[in-house]
Protein: Triosephosphate isomerase
Amino acid sequence: MTECSSADHSGTPEILYIGVSTKMYMGYRDCLDWLARIQHEVDSRPALAAGRVVPFVIPSFPVLPAASGVISGSPLLLGAQNCGWADGPWTGEVSPSLLAELGVSVVEIGHAERRRHFGEDNTMIARKVRAADDAGITPLLCVGEETRNEKSGTGASGAAAFVHQQIDEAVGGDWALASRLMIAYEPVWAIGATEPADAGYVAAVVRSLRTLLAAHSHGAGDALGDPPVIYGGSAKPGLLPALDGVSGLFLGRFAHDSANFGKVLDEALSMTALQEALRGT
Ligand SMILES: O=C(CO)COP(=O)(O)O
Structure:
């Protein structure tokens, strides 16, 4: 999933992605009711049809077939929270090919909660990334440093180097594959917190990460686009406009209230409209 260009005069990337994972917070009925409210937020913003702001929802596996029907024909993309890496004798896993059949176009891989509670390591994550890509699904690779160090001098560049290493291992050094990812930068310490990471810090990490990623595209003769990098971790309305150069938000708890999702969509639409006005397009 490649951005058309990294940033322009205003610093806003060409396309902004606004997504939400329900994790395991909602039951089946509750999730479908919530999804109908999210769908309403999307339907009531016809400007989304232009495709400069791309919304996506990631419910639990059992909700996916019904969700696929609910959002059909709308700009809302459907995602899954995890995937296996092969068809066959893998009890309890769900293959990317099955997810693709259900209309899933994005799959989270390597979320901090899966790394921490389910022992997902970089080898497993690399297999999942490859399998999802082979099935035509965009891997939403979740990366982020474990501990809070934004105040130290090397905080942002150190975090970017760590995240770059996570991405390198997830794609096995295949930077063409990396250009087809969406990256969710989620500092582990900011997930489930009361407030997101400091906006200036996030912007600095993403800027530094983009520089590291750009070195690979240049090595390939500029043939590769940079993947979008969105931010997650206690994200809420008011944050995105402060995140210069970041490609969107990955929301959690604060989008359980669908009105907040709508507010963030409005912020993203305003940012892309401002960018167009600045460019005179
Ligand atoms: O992990 C997240 C999104 O995947 C963020 O969750 P919270 O916004 O609830 O911290």
Remarks:
- The longest helix spans residues 258-279.
- The longest strand covers residues 16-21.
- The beta strands are 16-21, 53-58, 77-80, 106-109, 138-143, 182-185, 229-232, 248-251.
- Residues 21, 111, 186, 191-192, 232-235, 250-254 surround 1,3-dihydroxyacetonephosphate (CB under 6 Å).
